[in-house]
Design brief:
With 236 residues, the chain is of the alpha/beta class. 37% of the residues lie in helices and 27% in strands. The model has no long low-confidence stretch (mean pLDDT 91).
Length: 236
C-alpha cells in the first residue's frame, strides 16, 4: 500500500494505492476531507483525471457538509442545551461541596460541581459522564453483531475524532468510535458499530464490503445520511 496526495487548485486529495478492484472516492465529515483509493499499479495521472471528473460532486458534498449546523462552544452553565442520544436537554449546574456528579431525567441534565469549578473542569466531568453512557451502550451492541456477522472484536476504544465517526484496525481486530456519537440517536451508534465490524471482514470499501453492509444493515444509506446531516460538534 502506498500513499500520496493530489492537489487540484485549493483542493487536497489523499490518495492510497492498494489491493482493490475499483477506484473509491469519499468526502468525509465533518470538514469535508477527500480521499481516493485506487488499485495498486494505477498511474497517479489516471487517478488525477478521475478526481478531476468528479470535482463537481466533491464540491457538492463539501458544500453540504459546510452548510450543516454546528454546535456553539459550550460553557456548561444553567439552561444551556445539550444533546444525548438525539434528544435535547437543558443543563442545570448545582454548586455544592460534594464530589462532582452528573444525573439525567426525562428533560434535564444536572451537573453537580464544587463551588468555583471552572469551565474546563466542568467540561471534563461532563465528558467523563458521556463516556460512561457510551461504555454502557456499546458492549451489548458489539456482542449482538458479533453473533449476527460472525466476527469477534478484540476490543473497542473511544476517541474524539475530527473527521470520522469510527475506524477499524483490521489486524488487531479493534474498532474505534467517536465520542460525539453519544449525542446522536442510538440507532446511528449501532450503524457505525456495524460498519466498523464489517471492516473486520473486509478492510476496504470494496464491492464486497457494500454487499455485506447491504446484507446485514439494509438501511445503512439512510443512517449515513441522517448521521451526516445532524449538527456537528466543535473540533477538538
Amino acid at each position: 500500500m502506498t500513499q500520496t496526495h493530489i492537489r487540484l487548485g485549493g483542493l487536497d486529495i489523499a490518495v492510497t494505492f492498494k489491493a482493490v478492484k475499483n477506484v473509491h472516492l469519499s468526502v468525509h465529515p465533518p470538514q469535508g476531507k477527500v480521499t481516493l483509493v485506487a488499485p495498486t499499479g494505477t498511474r497517479l495521472e489516471v487517478a488525477r483525471v478521475y478526481a478531476i471528473s468528479k470535482l463537481g460532486w466533491i464540491r457538492q458534498q463539501q458544500a453540504q457538509l459546510h452548510a450543516q449546523a454546528r454546535e456553539t462552544p459550550r460553557q456548561f452553565v444553567t439552561r444551556e442545551s445539550h444533546y444525548i442520544w438525539g434528544r435535547r436537554y437543558l443543563l442545570t449546574v448545582v454548586e455544592q461541596d460534594v464530589p462532582p456528579a452528573v444525573k439525567m431525567d426525562h428533560r434535564r441534565i444536572t451537573l453537580n460541581v464544587r463551588p468555583e469549578t471552572d469551565t474546563s473542569r466542568r467540561e471534563a466531568i461532563y465528558q467523563a459522564w458521556q463516556r460512561s453512557l457510551l461504555h454502557h451502550a456499546i458492549p451489548p451492541l458489539i456482542e449482538r453483531w458479533e453473533q449476527r456477522i460472525g466476527v469477534k472484536a478484540a476490543g473497542y476504544f473511544l476517541q474524539r475524532m475530527k473527521t470520522k465517526w469510527g475506524s477499524c484496525n483490521h489486524r488487531r481486530t479493534h474498532i474505534r468510535l467517536n465520542t460525539e456519537l453519544v449525542k446522536k440517536p442510538r440507532d446511528l451508534l449501532e450503524y457505525v458499530i456495524v460498519h466498523e465490524m464489517i471492516h473486520l471482514i473486509e478492510p476496504t470499501h470494496s464491492e464486497r464490503f457494500i454487499a455485506l453492509l447491504d446484507q446485514h444493515y439494509p438501511a445503512w444509506r439512510e443512517a449515513r445520511a441522517e448521521l451526516n446531516a445532524l449538527p456537528l460538534g466543535q473540533a477538538a
